[in-house]
Design a protein that fits this description.
alpha/beta; Tetracycline Repressor, domain 2; Glutaredoxin; six-stranded mixed β-sheet; 48% helix; globular
Length: 354
C-alpha cells in the first residue's frame, strides 16, 4: 500500500469533509446540520474537521464555493456580439441555477438558501460581501465595455453591471424565499432591456495619497497561481500590475485596470486576515459571476483582470506582504521581470500604474 504524504493525507481528508458536509447540508439543511454528524459521515474525528475548517459556517461557504467552481461552463450557441445579447446570456446562465417550486426543500438545489442570512449575520462577512460584489460589477462591466466601448474617454459600464447584478441577486433571493414566484424568462428579458440604459457612468480616481517608492528588484512569484476569472494560469510574472488586496479593498482593482496600458496584465491577489473563514466566501461569490461571464462572452471580451485567491499566502509574501489583513492594499509595477515601483496604502493600485 502506498503511504500518503502529509499534504496528500490532508487534501484527502479535506475532500472527505467537503463531500460529507454537502450530503449533510442537503439532507438536514444548514441550521440542523452538526459537525459531529459531518465527521461521522466522513469517517473522521471532530478534530479532523476543525483542522480544515474553523466552524460550520466556513464549511458551508466552502461547500458552496466548491459547487460553484465546478459548475460546467456551456458556451452559448452563438457568441454574444452586443451588450444586449451578452446580458441575456448572463441572465440565462444565472437563472438555470435557481431553485424551482417543485424542488425538495432539502434537495441539492436548495443548498444555498441560508447563504444570505449567514452573510447578513456578521459585519465582517457583510463588508467582505459588499466588496466582492463590487469586484464582480467591475469584471462584468469591463467585459461589457469590450463589446461596446464607451463613447466618452472616461465612460464606463460598471454601473450597468451593478444594475444587472442587483436584478439577478434579487431573483436569487426571491427564488429561495418564495419558490415559483420568479419567472426566469422575465428575468432574462429585464436584463436584456437594461442594456439600453444610459446611467451617465464616468470614471474618476479618488484623491488618495499612498506611499510610493521607485525601485529595481527581481520579481519571482511562485508558480501555479490560478485565475478565478478565466480558469487558466494567472501569470503574475508578466509585465503589468500585481495588486495584493484585502477583502475590504477589492474595488480598488478597477484603479489598476484603468491606469495600465491595454497590453499590460493586471493581477489581483485576494487576501484576508481570516483566510479559512472568508476566502471560501470570496471564491463562491466570484465564481457565481465568472462562470456566467465565461458562458456568455466570447473569449476576446473577457476582462483584462486576473483574480487569484492566495490561500497559502505565498504570492502575497513574494510581494512583501507577510501579514495580510482585510484592509491591505499593496501594488507592484512589474516590467521585464523586475519590480520598478511599489505603492502601499489606499490609492496604491492607481499610484503603481503611473
Amino acid at each position: 500500500m502506498v503511504r500518503l504524504s502529509r499534504a496528500e493525507a490532508q487534501e484527502r481528508n479535506r475532500a472527505k469533509v467537503l463531500a460529507a458536509a454537502r450530503a449533510e447540508f442537503a439532507e438536514r439543511g444548514f441550521r440542523e446540520a452538526r459537525i459531529d454528524d459531518i465527521a461521522d459521515r466522513a469517517e473522521l474525528t471532530r478534530g479532523a474537521v476543525y483542522s480544515n475548517f474553523p466552524g460550520k459556517r466556513a464549511l458551508y461557504f466552502a461547500v458552496l464555493a466548491d459547487l460553484a467552481e465546478r459548475t460546467p461552463v456551456i458556451p452559448a450557441d452563438e457568441p454574444a456580439l452586443t451588450v444586449r445579447e451578452a446580458l441575456g446570456e448572463v441572465a440565462r446562465a444565472w437563472v438555470t441555477r435557481l431553485p424551482l417550486a417543485t424542488d425538495d426543500e432539502r434537495g441539492p438545489s436548495m443548498l444555498g438558501m441560508h447563504l444570505m442570512p449567514e452573510i447578513l449575520a456578521d459585519e465582517v462577512t457583510r463588508t467582505a460581501y459588499a466588496q466582492l460584489m463590487s469586484l464582480n460589477a467591475v469584471l462584468l462591466g469591463l467585459a461589457l465595455e469590450r463589446l461596446r466601448p464607451p463613447k466618452e474617454p472616461d465612460g464606463r459600464l460598471v454601473r450597468l453591471a451593478e444594475a444587472v447584478l442587483t436584478v439577478l441577486q434579487g431573483a436569487g433571493q426571491l427564488s429561495a424565499a418564495a419558490p415559483g414566484f420568479v419567472e426566469p424568462f422575465n428575468v432574462i428579458r429585464v436584463c436584456e432591456q437594461l442594456a439600453g440604459l444610459d446611467l451617465g457612468d464616468r470614471w474618476a480616481v479618488a484623491p488618495l495619497l499612498p506611499r510610493v517608492r521607485e525601485t529595481d528588484e527581481p520579481w519571482s512569484p511562485p508558480s501555479g497561481a490560478v485565475d478565478a476569472v478565466g480558469g487558466g494560469p494567472a501569470r503574475p510574472e508578466r509585465d503589468g500590475v500585481v495588486a495584493v488586496l484585502g477583502l475590504h479593498r477589492l474595488s480598488a482593482a478597477e484603479e489598476a485596470v484603468r491606469g495600465t496600458p491595454p497590453d499590460a496584465e493586471v493581477t489581483v491577489v485576494v487576501v484576508t486576515g481570516a483566510p479559512k473563514e472568508l476566502l471560501p466566501l470570496a471564491r463562491l461569490v466570484i465564481a457565481e459571476v465568472c462562470t456566467c461571464l465565461r458562458q456568455a462572452f466570447p473569449r476576446p471580451a473577457w476582462p483584462r483582470l486576473r483574480v487569484v485567491f492566495d490561500e497559502s499566502g505565498a504570492l502575497a509574501a513574494a510581494a512583501g506582504v507577510t501579514e495580510p489583513l482585510d484592509g491591505t492594499e499593496v501594488a507592484l509595477r512589474v516590467r521585464a521581470g523586475r519590480v520598478v515601483r511599489r505603492a502601499e496604502g489606499y490609492g496604491a493600485c492607481h499610484a503603481a500604474t503611473r
